[in-house]
Design goal:
The structure holds two protein chains of two kinds. By secondary structure, chain A is of the alpha/beta class. Chain A has one domain: Lipoprotein like domain (Double Stranded RNA Binding Domain), CATH 3.30.160. Chain A is built from four helices and seven strands. Chain A has a five-stranded mixed β-sheet with strand order 3-2-4-5-6. In chain A, a hairpin with a 5-residue loop joins strand 5 and strand 6. Chain A starts with a helix and ends with a strand. Chain B is an alpha+beta fold. Chain B is about 30% helix and about 35% strand. The C terminus of chain B is likely disordered. Classes of the chains: A alpha/beta, B alpha+beta.
Chain lengths: ~170, ~180
């Protein structure tokens, strides 16, 4: 009498383990793109007119934030040292939307005058194969000048890179 | 008699032309300017206040003991623009937000006009850099002209010496603000 009960418990345990397997599998981290280095290209804004200082601020902030996120080799647009790197990921960024607000309006009214910018980020291999594409936006709602939106964008874009790229130097 | 008048007239013309040339030269070499480097110069902290000048075909920035030089020939683009900033400083401005009856908001209405100078340049390895400076009104155009005369380039394809700010596509956008 005892033997069928024990085997029933065992069978039930095994069944539960099988049932739990897909749940654990769902929680596993998605595979990251392997990257030994990242090269940031200058922000493009062919479709949307963008003031020069915004273009430069987006580019410089993006490089600083990627370095802050732990990428040891962040190359600039046109850097010849990047040519010899294997597992290089190139980041192309194109401005899709830009609305310049007013710091004065933000501080006086609180609810209006926000500056927002949306940038399409494409991570690709040096041969041009797209590895990951995301739209990232940057905003400044209340405190700070309009250029602070570029800092907000850079932080978010660097976070996307950190979540999806695995720096081979860390392994 | 006629010869005397002609000599006098020629002398006056020469004196006038000389004064015009000297005024033009004085405007071109305007000397060091106090600026704020918002971002971009290698080895210089963001929002660093310093002295900017064009010396020996270099854009020269000094902030305390930190010095940074960018060769004018390595500059691919120079763009000027206009902007404004709060007249009341940062800390006082922040504290004033707590003032009763919207006093802080009232202070936010007062702003001073400034000019921006944005440059894009390449380092020795070919890497692209960008730097942004803010300065008092009336200074950016002079620095831009000096840079172009020293060998810097601009995107609008204008001739280096006779470059004017309005020729750049970016500056036209910025002036609308």
């Amino acid at each position: 009498m005892k033997r069928p009960l024990t085997s029933g418990i065992r069978l039930g345990t095994v069944a539960l383990l099988f049932a739990a397997c897909p749940l654990f599998a769902g929680k596993s981290e998605p595979t990251k793109i392997k990257a030994r280095a990242i090269q940031v290209e200058m922000i493009q804004s062919d479709e949307v007119p963008l003031p020069a200082e915004f273009q430069v601020a987006l580019y410089e902030n993006l490089i600083h934030q990627l370095e802050k996120q732990g990428f040891q080799h962040v190359y600039r647009d046109g850097d010849r040292n990047a040519m010899s790197i294997t597992d290089l990921v190139v980041l192309h960024s194109t401005v899709r939307r830009f609305k310049e607000g007013s710091e004065r309006a933000r501080q006086v009214t609180t609810v209006s005058g926000a500056t927002s910018i949306t940038v399409h980020c494409q991570f690709s291999s040096p041969d041009g194969t797209s590895l990951l594409e995301r739209d990232v936006n940057g905003k400044v709602w209340f405190f700070g000048g309009n250029l602070k939106a570029t800092y907000d964008f850079a932080k978010k874009a660097a976070r996307v890179a950190h979540e999806n790229l695995s720096s081979l130097d860390h392994e | 008699m006629t010869l005397k008048w002609a000599t006098l007239f020629a002398g006056l013309v020469l004196a006038f032309a000389g004064s015009v040339v000297s005024i033009a030269n004085a405007q071109q070499s305007q000397g060091p300017t106090t600026v704020v480097q918002l971002t971009g110069l290698a080895g210089v902290k963001d929002n660093a206040k310093g002295i900017l000048s064009v010396e020996n075909r270099n854009l020269h920035f000094v902030h305390g003991k930190t010095r940074s030089d960018v060769s004018a020939t390595s500059i691919e683009d120079v763009v000027t623009g206009s902007d404004s900033q709060k007249a009341v400083g940062r800390t006082v401005g922040m504290l004033s937000m707590a003032a009763p009856y919207g006093g802080g908001r009232f202070l936010s209405l007062f702003r001073t006009k400034i000019e921006t100078l944005t440059i894009r340049y390449r380092d020795a390895e070919g890497g692209l850099h960008g730097a942004i400076f803010t300065m008092p009104v009336g200074k950016a155009d002079g620095i831009k002209k000096e840079l172009l005369a020293s060998g810097a380039h601009t995107t609008a394809g204008e001739s280096s010496a006779a470059a004017s700010t309005s020729a750049s596509p970016f500056s036209q956008e910025e002036r609308k603000q």
